[in-house]
Amino acid sequence: MDQSPNEPVLSLFLASSVHDMKNSVSMLSASLEKMLAEVDPHASAACQEMAHMLFEVRRVNGNLTQLLTLYKLGERLYPFDPQACSIAQLALELESQNRSLLASRGMTLYIDAPADLIWHFDEDLVAGVLNHAINNAIRYTHDKLRLAFAMRDGCLEMRVEDNGAGYPETLLAAPEASQGVDFRSGSTGLGLYFAREVAALHRHHDRHGTVRLENGGALGGGCFILLLP
């Protein structure tokens, strides 16, 4: 099928609109986080309502960021640049970014990150994938999450685990189905698609990154696993 001459213009217009929306949502997220930090913790109803608002705003912001990044990757505009990254520092930054939301919901994030481990990857992309996985785990966990890093068969394994009910068996049996739209839950599969695209970008010799879902892990719930060569 021939591409309409208006399609490149429309794509650019949509990307620009997404960028503007993302900036506005980011400002709203920052304001909510500041307000949540200042609210009286004894005002439980107000605190829980603001925590829920912050969760939803961050989820929307994450989706907009993923859409914009996928557009840039498709147009070869994204400056993909793997660099040597400190795993311990990355873990601390992710914990800091989610601290207010976790505290407001009474959840604990456990971190297992070797202090001296260094790995090459695009830190912004990988942090985006892990942040989305943490946000998703916050939605489904009971009260505990675990962010763990380890070496496995010459690859860096990054895990986001929770103590919720775990992934449904239908998703574990056919993960490709997650790329469709589930009108009952509102899931579009964008997060998992984005994670797989980011993983595939990271290559070393004849190997490339992969994403896997499973149940169990250290907390007994859902496990999101990103492997990078």
Give a description of the structure:
This protein is of the alpha+beta class and 229 residues long. Helices cover 51% and strands 21% of the residues. The strands form 3 sheets. A 5-stranded mixed β-sheet has the order 2-4-5-9-8. Strands 1-3 form a two-stranded antiparallel sheet. Strand 4 and strand 5 form a beta hairpin. The longest helix is centred in the first third of the chain and has 32 residues. The chain is globular. The mean pLDDT is 87.
Name its key features:
single chain; 229 residues; alpha+beta; two-stranded antiparallel sheet; 6 helices; 51% helix; globular
Percent strand = 15-25%
Major sheet details: 5 strands, mixed
Mean pLDDT: 87
> What general form does the structure show?
globular
Which segments are poorly predicted (pLDDT under 50) over 5 or more consecutive residues? none
Compute the CA-based radius of gyration. Answer: 18 Å
Structure classification: alpha+beta
- Alpha-carbon distance between the two ends: 37 Å
The side-by-side strand order for the widest beta sheet comes to 2-4-5-9-8
Got a strand count? 9
Helicity level = 40-55%
Order of helices and strands: HHEHEEHEEHHEEEE
What count of helical segments does DSSP give?
6
